[in-house]
Amino acid sequence: MTSDRLDLVSKLYQPSGWPRILEVASGQRSTAPLVVDLDPTTFCDLACPECISGKLLNQGRFTPERLAELAGELVEMKVRGVVLIGGGEPLAHRGTRQVLRTLGEAGIAIGVVTNGTMIPQNLKELARYASWVRVSMDSGSADTYGVFRPDRKGRSVFDKVIANMRLLAAEKRGALGYSFLIMSRLQPDGTTVSNHHEVLQAARLAKDIGCDYFESKAMFDDGHHVIQMPEETLASVVEQLHEAEKLADDGFEIIDSSTLTTLRNRVGPVQPKEYHSCPVAELRTLITPSGVYVCSYHRGNPLAKIGDAVTEKLPDIWATADRGIVDPSRDCRFHCARHRSNLELHKIGAGAATEEPVEDYDPFI
């Protein structure tokens, strides 16, 4: 099922962001990003072996005071949407609740990507202010969860997270999502362990919990290239998703991520790009304790770092940063979810816009 949640090109044509879209499409520097990914901390209470940010964990955090200041600076810059994400687990920082309050009271849309273990401590703020909360589950059973998402003592906290999701489902104003990253691991004995057989089981559980959507995704390697699946695995996933579609109704949606769609369309791991500048880098950015980066695909990459939010104010960073330091044709040959957005921005700049602004519905471009 195609969802507006993932139709990033159409989101460019929303009226409230259109002035900045035109600014960027015409080759100008933007006055501020429209959307910011914010890592409050690099700490995580789980120890997922396949974590793509594993090498960046436990390498710093913002103080609660600085995190509160950052929230105020995002309001000052008139950012439209903020995604609390990470590196680490965003709800693990005791200052995150204040960030949720500050942004929410200012009318900024908030997304949260979490492992779900700390929902109860943040329940009031998540329920009231979050536009959406997506919980990374990657399983449909406690045993498989323990294999791919163990805690630091090697235990499965699956039942705890499911209970936490039920708490949020009962209180939330925004959407709640169940995220399933399809994974496999080669064991030392030469056998392979996978979670792909639990896609349908997890989708059924997501609906039972009261989630608004179930999203399946393909794995990335360390270079953000989509990892190819064996034909039989992909066939199994496609069959399960086809069956899961029967669960969809007005309150529950089945979503294929762009990464999984590339596999279904037999697209390889490399996504060539013929343009040398990234207009989206003028509209989105990533803020972490280790630095401010051009985008989340380049988290931790010193060649894509444009500032230090621990010691510098965000408006000052944005005013002086060279956001053209990344050349997509050279530096972004992985699958980028916003490749089509960049192509569309180039069209808009050339006077060949494909849509007309109609109404605001989702600021997360």
From TrEMBL:
Keywords, sorted A to Z: Iron, Iron-sulfur, Metal-binding, S-adenosyl-L-methionine
Gene3D superfamilies, per database record: Aldolase class I
Residues in Radical SAM core domain copies: 30-264
Protein name: Radical SAM protein
GO MF entry, a single one: metal ion binding
